[in-house]
Each structure stands twice: as C-alpha cells, then as structure tokens.
Amino acid sequence: MLALNYRGPSRLRVSQKPEPSIEHPNDAIVRVTRACICGSDLHLYHGLVPDTRVGMTFGHEFTGIVEEVGRTVSSLKPGDSVLVPFNVFCGTCFFCQRELYGNCHDTNPYATALGGAFGYSATAGNYDGGQAEYVRVPLADVGPTKLPPDMDLDDAVLLTDALPTGYQAAEMAGIKEGDTVVVFGAGPIGIFAAKSAWLMGAGRVIVVDGVDYRLEFVRRYAKVETVNFHEIDDITVHLKKLCDGLGPDACIDAVGAEADGSWFHRITGVFLKIQAGAPTALQWAINSVRKGGTISIVGVYGPTLNMVPIGNAMNKGLTLRMNQASVKRHLPKLIEHIQAGRIDPKQIITHRVPLEEAAEAYHIFSNKLDGCIKTILIPPSLQH
C-alpha cells in the first residue's frame, strides 16, 4: 500500500509499505477514505516530538471503510463507514470510565501522561496513522464510530480531532454568558475554538495570530475580532486595554510548541530544544487574562521543561485546564450541531491533495503558503 514514510526532521516520502493485518482479535483493518494533516503533525515533521521513529506513518485524523474485523469484534462489520477518533483507548480503565479517553492507561507504555494516539510517535504508543491507504485500528469495538447516513466525509474527518479539540478548548475555558474570550492561534483548532466559544455563550471573541490570511479566514468563518501580534508593541497590554484594563475572562492556547512572537522562545524551544517548545502563546495567555480568569490549553508541548510564568498564574488566582481532547465524548453533541447547521466544519478545508503528494502538502502547510488552512489527503482509490 501507499503510505507516508517519515525519514527524519522535515523529510517525508510516500512509498510502498506492507498492508496492515489483524494482530489481535479486537482489531479492524480500515481502508482510508479521508485523512488530514494536523498542526500537531508539524511538531513531528520538525522533529520536536521525542522518539519519532524513521519509517513511521503519521496521521491521527482519518475516516474509512471497514475491510476486515477480528473474531471478537461485534460492533463493526466489513463495509461499515466509520470515523476513527485520534485517541486509541480501551474504554474500561480508570480514566476511560471517567471519559478521559486521551489519558487511557492501557494503550500506551508511557501512559503516566498521554494515552495512545494514532500516528504520533512512540511516546503515544507507536501506532501507525491514517496518512496511508489502510490502517490497523485496535480496540475496534470502542473507538470507531459509524457515520450517520447523511454525514459528509469532509465533515466526518474533522470530527476525528480538529472540531472536538476546538470544542473541548472552549468547554475547558469555563465560558459564562457574556464572557470575553481570547483565542491564541488561527489554525483549525483555534478557528473551531472561536466558533465553539459562541455556542457556549461568549459575548465577545478575539483571535490573535501573526498571519493575515488566517486572521481574515477566522473573521469570516467565526465572526470574531482579530489582532495581528506583529502589529502590536505589547500584546498583553493591548488585550488588557481591549477589555476595560482588566483582561479577558478566559484565554485559549491553541498554538503550542511552535509559537512565533518571541525570538528567545523560538531559539531555545524550537531550534536548540533547550525547552519543550516555544511557550510564547501560553505566556501571553497567563499574563493577559484577568485575575481569577481561566486558561484553556490544547496546544501541544513536549513532555519536558518549559519556561512558564506559573508564579503569575498563582498570584492572579487563575484556573488552568488542559488535556488531549476526549473525542468520543463530544461526538453526539457535535454531530447534532452539524446536523442543525450550527457548525459547518468542511468550510475550513482549503486544500485537497492526492496522498502521493503528501510531502509537498506538508511543505505548503508548514510554511503557510497558498492560503492553506486545512489539508485533506485523498487515497488513490478515491481520486476519480
């Protein structure tokens, strides 16, 4: 089969790999119909995630058709069209019982923190991902969700990570009716976080980014105010001035490890890797939000040292909430929002690219070329 093949930082190729097979009676083999490139895939691409091994196939956002199931799988059969949450989870451990599927204790040998995830290095369980023609999906009775008959595939693939993560970001922000919410990052997650903030009762939503075309897109899609941090001397002071001198009620970090805006953090966190990514957006969030406010973090950072002003957070009495999204928990509500027309996820898709051209697609997305917001990879069998 054709599959993305990681060869080292900023080096990808699409090549032939063996098709996956049933390894456990609760496995399924899924033929991919859609796969996305996610902003957090760029952390892998740039070599910022520990133990990303040569030969790995990325891709934690995908839909597909069930081709084969193991003998104990009872909820799926060949021919079923499914979306597959990026979390690999057991459904029965202490954390899964509390719907913390991103923290499953049984699907990742490094499960003191992160649970299992498709296509996200050995630190997330070493599961190959969906930027391929076929994927082995373990615990198939638990994760995959059958698509509603009227669900567009482009909407469905955005339910595997991007939309649930943005929605959970807004949920964790504890938004109350009329609150002012600032979202750092106008990528897909930030766009969906901004859209979701309105659904949760926000009275004002402001998105901060440094790329004009992304800001223009989120203004149009989510009907928000925007700020280009390159045009501001001090973003913290600017946001406080926009909010009666006090600061916003909640801030969402939808950026993570590769944030722009501070040369010091870029050098130490991205190039030298002295800290686990550039925590610029997180620092801005902590320093901007009002006293007693809430910080929601869904931007991905490495699992080691970061220079975070935790003293400011403590002295301001902030609430910090963060996690990987528990995709399965959000699906019923998000499917309802889509069917009711409150959210149209597929509108953020700007590029549809053959799987064979995935390496070029990563280059375009990484360098913010051609107005790229969200890229879908199409396997050869569907390119007609």
Mean pLDDT: 94
Derived from helix and strand composition plus strand pairing, the structural class reads alpha/beta
Q: Estimate what percentage of residues fall within beta strands.
A: 15-25%
Summarize the main sheet: 7 strands, mixed
- Please state the overall shape, judged from the principal axes of the Cα atoms: globular
Report the order of strands and helices: EEEHEEEEEEHHEHEHEHEHHEHEHEHE
Helix content: 25-40%
CATH superfamily assignment of the largest domain?
Answer: Medium-chain alcohol dehydrogenases, catalytic domain
Got a strand count?
17
CATH overall fold name of the largest domain: Quinone Oxidoreductase, Chain A, domain 1
Rg (CA only): 20 Å
Can you tell me the CATH architecture of the largest domain? Answer: Alpha-Beta Complex
* CATH class identity of the largest domain: Alpha Beta
Q: Uncertain spans, ≥5 residues at pLDDT below 50?
A: none
Q: Terminal Cα separation, in Å?
A: 18 Å
Number of domains: 2
Q: How many helices?
A: 11
Outline the structure in words.
The chain is α/β, with parallel strands linked by helices and 384 residues long. It folds into two domains: 2-161 and 326-382, Quinone Oxidoreductase, Chain A, domain 1 (Alpha-Beta Complex), CATH 3.90.180.10; 163-322, 3-Layer(aba) Sandwich (Rossmann fold). It has eleven helices and 17 strands. The chain has helices at 39-45, 153-157, 162-172, 188-199, 212-222, 235-242, 263-271, 280-288, 310-315, 327-339, 358-366, and strands at 2-8, 11-16, 28-37, 62-69, 81-84, 87-88, 116-117, 134-137, 145-146, 180-184, 204-209, 225-228, 250-253, 294-297, 319-322, 349-354, 374-378. Strands 3, 4, 5, 8, 9, 16 and 17 form a seven-stranded mixed β-sheet that branches. A six-stranded parallel β-sheet has the order 12-11-10-13-14-15, with helices on both faces. Strands 1-2 form a two-stranded antiparallel ribbon. The mean pLDDT is 94.
